Amino acid sequence: MNNFFFEPIISELFKTNDNYQLIENESHRLEYKKEFHIDDDIFKTINAFANNSGGYIIYGVNPNGKFLDGVNEHSLVNYKKIDSENFRGKLYNFCQPNIPLFHCLHKIKEKNFIVMYICDSDKKPFVFCNNGSVFKSGDIFFRYNDSVKKILFPELNQIIEKNRNEEQNKWMNFIGKIAKIGLENITIIDKKNKYLYDGEKNIPLSDEIAQSFIDLSNNNEIDGKIEGKIGLSIKQWEDIDFNDQYKYKISEISNKISKDLKLEKKIFSYYSLVNINKYLNLKTNKAYCQSLIQGKVLSWRYTEKYFSLIKKFLLESENIVIDAKSMSKLEARDKNKDLLLFQAIESSLI
């Protein structure tokens, strides 16, 4: 069972007086509800708790007298759906970012109680991004004492200022560490785009190695051989003659294509290739292109294979040369058809 539902915590939550009424009063960290319904009202309540400091919602309690009534059968049926698309999926669809919450079913004699814990998160504010029956897109709710209300400026400003200060502290700590270690000894790992930057160039990382860095940052164990694989990846990259393999700038590619296919610049240009790269998502394929940082300038260089592939694609794809002048025209095309043709040409060049 999760830490939030350890026996001492549950015992304290369900402590009663001589009249079998719960001792604890509702607060900004605690709410009692009679039954568990999957409706917009519960999403609004969860949003309010998440934007304050989290807390517990206990179902099966009569809020008026704080008597332990237990939930009915309908609530138990709804509870079985709590981890389904019907509940968590709806919550995620309504409210962003994703709100972390946990739950358990607690039994006292023959009575059942649903206990939900909404975590205190550093991802505030949680904002509704779609309309519902009791909220609209853009709404942010907050738990004020024992009630749920739209957030007021002082609380929202406190959240924003806290986020800003934490971000600033992270940057200051990061820059301080760089200064202490020395720029010449720093290597930056881009986990999102799967690159290792050594101060001069981007070195591509395999999916396995990139995932290992993610595991490390999450304090998970990784394969003990991964360090050697990283070293091998770097060595293989350093052995590449970058200027020989990635020999073309995009402007050089467009000029070569225009010359070979006898296309005027007003019909086909550098911007046409930029649009095609975006349309077909080609910059993710290191067999075709690679980014290079020289000084403070980031540029993309392209391979001979890319030139051959694009040239043949332009010849065989109907009206692609004309449509490539505008991203909106490209997006109006049959993309699946273009991708199938591109893949077929790609296979023929292997």
Concise overview:
The chain is α+β, with helices and mostly antiparallel strands and 350 residues long.
Indicate the structural class. alpha+beta
Rg for CA atoms: 29 Å
Overall outline: elongated
- Helical coverage, percent range: 40-55%
pLDDT under 50 segments (min length 5)? 224-229, 232-237
The CATH architecture of the largest domain can be given as 2-Layer Sandwich
Indicate the mean pLDDT.
Answer: 84
CATH homologous superfamily placement of the largest domain: Schlafen, AAA domain
Helix and strand string, N-terminal first?
A: HEHEEEHHEEEEEEHEEEHHHEHHEEHHHH
Number of helices: 14
User: Number of DSSP strands?
Assistant: 16
- Terminus-to-terminus distance: 54 Å
Count of all domains: 4
Major β-sheet strand ordering: 1-2-7-6
Question: Which properties best describe this structure?
Answer:
14 helices, alpha+beta, 18% strand, 43% helix, Methyltransferase, Cobalt-precorrin-4 Transmethylase, Domain 2, 350 residues, 4-stranded mixed sheet, 4 domains, 3-stranded antiparallel sheet, single chain
Question: Which helices and strands occur, and which strands form pairs?
Answer:
Layout (H helix, E strand, L loop, with lengths): L6 H7 L16 E4 L6 H12 L3 E5 L1 E2 L4 E2 L4 H7 L5 H10 E2 L4 E8 L2 E8 L8 E2 L12 E4 L2 E4 L2 H29 L6 E3 L4 E3 L4 E3 L2 H11 L8 H13 L3 H4 L2 E2 H11 L9 H11 L8 E6 L2 E6 L1 H13 L3 H4 L3 H5 L3 H14 L2
Parallel strand pairs: 1-2
Antiparallel strand pairs: 2-7, 3-4, 5-8, 6-7, 9-10, 11-12, 12-13, 14-16, 15-16
Helix pairs in contact: 9-10, 11-14
